[in-house]
Amino acid sequence: MDKTTTGWLNGFLGVLIFSGSLPATRVAVADFAPVFLTASRAAIAGLIGLALLVALRERRPERDDLVSLAVVALGVVVGFPLLTAIALQHITSAHSIVFIGLLPLATAIFGVLRGGERPRPAFWAFSLLGSLLVVGFAVSQGISAAPVGDLLMLAAVVVCGLGYAEGGRLSRKLGGWQVICWALVLSLPIMLVIAMMTSPGTLAGIGGPAWAGLAYVSLFSMLIGFVFWYRGLAQGGIAAVGQLQLLQPFFGLALAAMLLHEEVNPAMIGVTVAIVVCVAGAKKFAK
C-alpha cells in the first residue's frame, strides 16, 4: 500500500473517531462546566501522553519545535474543545456538527500558509463550495436564534484548522502520535491547575452519561483520534486528507440521532450529501 493511500486510511479513522466528539461533549456539558471539561480532558490525555513518551523513551523536541507545539496545543488542546463546549450550551450537537464542514477549508488554507502545499484552483472551488453550503444551511436554519453558539463554532473551526495544519506539518518530523502527546504535555501543568480550580464542588449530581462523555473526549477525541489524524495528514497531504472532514457530519449526525435523540431533518442530510460530493472533487485536484 503506497504512502498516500495509507494517509487517507489513517485520516478516515481519525475522522471516524472525531465524529463522536461533539455528541459526547454535548452530553458532558449537561453536568460539567465547559472550562472544567476542557481542562480535565486535556489533563487526562496529557498524563497518558506523558506516560507513553516516558515508557517509549521518545527524544525531546528541539527548541525550534516548541513554538509549533504551542500552536497545536492552543488550537486543538485548548481552543477547539473550549469553544465548542461553550457553543454546545447554546446549540444542539446536530446543528454544530454541520459547521465541521468548514474545517477542510480552514485546514487547507493553513496547510498552504504553514505547510507549503499548493493545490490546484479547482481544489479551492470544491472546498469553497462545500463551505458555502454549510454557511447557507446555518443561515437557513435561523442563525439569529443562537448567534453566540454559531459564532463560537466558527471561531473553533479557525483555531482547529490552524492546529490541524501545524500538527500535520510537524508530524512529518516528529511523528503523528508524538506531536499530540508533546502538545498535551506542554499544556499539562496549566490544564491540571485549571481542572482542579474548576472541579465540581460535589460529584453527587454528575450522571453516568456525563462521565461517559468525559471519558470519550479525553481518550478518543483528545488522544487516539489524533494519532491517526496527524499521521494521515503527514502521509497524504494536509489539504488533501483534510477534506475527509467533510464526511464527519454523516457520522456525527447519525450519532446525535441515535444517542441523543436529536432531530436530523432533511435539510441537514441534503447539505451533508452535497458537501461529501465536494470532497470527491477536492481530492481529485488536491495536487
TrEMBL record:
<feature type="domain" description="EamA">
    <location>
        <begin position="149"/>
        <end position="279"/>
    </location>
</feature>
<feature type="transmembrane region" description="Helical">
    <location>
        <begin position="35"/>
        <end position="54"/>
    </location>
</feature>
<feature type="transmembrane region" description="Helical">
    <location>
        <begin position="237"/>
        <end position="261"/>
    </location>
</feature>
<keyword id="KW-1133">Transmembrane helix</keyword>
<dbReference type="InterPro" id="IPR037185">
    <property type="entry name" value="EmrE-like"/>
</dbReference>
<feature type="domain" description="EamA">
    <location>
        <begin position="7"/>
        <end position="130"/>
    </location>
</feature>
<feature type="transmembrane region" description="Helical">
    <location>
        <begin position="94"/>
        <end position="113"/>
    </location>
</feature>
<feature type="transmembrane region" description="Helical">
    <location>
        <begin position="145"/>
        <end position="165"/>
    </location>
</feature>
<keyword id="KW-0472">Membrane</keyword>
<comment type="similarity">
    <text>Belongs to the EamA transporter family.</text>
</comment>
<feature type="transmembrane region" description="Helical">
    <location>
        <begin position="177"/>
        <end position="198"/>
    </location>
</feature>
<dbReference type="Pfam" id="PF00892">
    <property type="entry name" value="EamA"/>
</dbReference>
<feature type="transmembrane region" description="Helical">
    <location>
        <begin position="210"/>
        <end position="230"/>
    </location>
</feature>
<feature type="transmembrane region" description="Helical">
    <location>
        <begin position="66"/>
        <end position="88"/>
    </location>
</feature>
<feature type="transmembrane region" description="Helical">
    <location>
        <begin position="7"/>
        <end position="29"/>
    </location>
</feature>
<protein>
    <submittedName>
        <fullName>Drug/metabolite transporter (DMT)-like permease</fullName>
    </submittedName>
</protein>
<keyword id="KW-0812">Transmembrane</keyword>
<dbReference type="InterPro" id="IPR050638">
    <property type="entry name" value="AA-Vitamin_Transporters"/>
</dbReference>
<feature type="transmembrane region" description="Helical">
    <location>
        <begin position="267"/>
        <end position="286"/>
    </location>
</feature>
<feature type="transmembrane region" description="Helical">
    <location>
        <begin position="122"/>
        <end position="139"/>
    </location>
</feature>
<dbReference type="InterPro" id="IPR000620">
    <property type="entry name" value="EamA_dom"/>
</dbReference>
